[in-house]
Amino acid sequence: QKEVEQNSGPLSVPEGAIASLNCTYSDRVSQSFFWYRQYSGKSPELIMSIYSNGDKEDGRFTAQLNKASQYVSLLIRDSQPSDSATYLCAAPGGQGNLIFGKGTKLSVKP
Amino acid sequence: GAVVSQHPSWVICKSGTSVKIECRSLDFQATTMFWYRQFPKQSLMLMATSNEGSKATYEQGVEKDKFLINHASLTLSTLTVTSAHPEDSSFYICSGRAPSSYEQYFGPGTRLTVT
Fold this sequence. Notes:
The complex is a heterodimer.
Chain A: E1 4-6, E2 11-14, E3 19-25, E4 33-38, E5 45-50, E6 54-58, E7 61-66, E8 71-76, E9 85-92, E10 98-100, E11 104-109
Parallel strand pairs in A: 2-11
Antiparallel strand pairs in A: 1-3, 3-8, 4-5, 4-9, 6-7, 7-8, 9-10, 9-11
Chain B: E1 4-7, E2 10-13, E3 19-25, E4 32-38, E5 45-51, E6 57-58, E7 67-73, E8 76-81, E9 90-97, E10 104-106, E11 110-114
Parallel strand pairs in B: 2-11
Antiparallel strand pairs in B: 1-3, 3-8, 4-5, 4-9, 5-6, 7-8, 9-10, 9-11
């Protein structure tokens, strides 16, 4: 059974700080990983995809992938209160679907 | 990113009635669509995978006769909750998978309340 694990949080950071969200996965052959953001009462929104080892930057977001350690992370620089949400990590499930972690709730305090 | 719409955004129905939820991919062809359910403060739960032109694949524990899924075209999938009961009240979310990718784009969700 493929699994994606995340710390449920809540993770609380002050405004302007770096928020670091972590995810581990069980399937060594996974080649792509995804970060979704879900605001309370809303559906998930894809914010980052990463396919190769190393860092991928998009604005204030940086995804980091380490396939050897089966670890993927999301860094949010200069965190804003509007970043307060639940962040879901996902990896391919092998049947065309995605396996989602349970999500990490981030709270950015003004 | 690709856009997926859902209709209705919320619905209230009486126990024993049926409700249909539509999911459309607006700017891409989604050969595969997924239906999820999410209860308050809980994580996403995959209900079924829907492939265009074929029968849906349901996850363990999901009653296929109660949650009817139809994926008649590359841009439209529907979920019908038959004989709804209060315990079916939940947030139902669909997603479409981008061609040649694992990326899924979610619709805005449908909040169902069964009274």
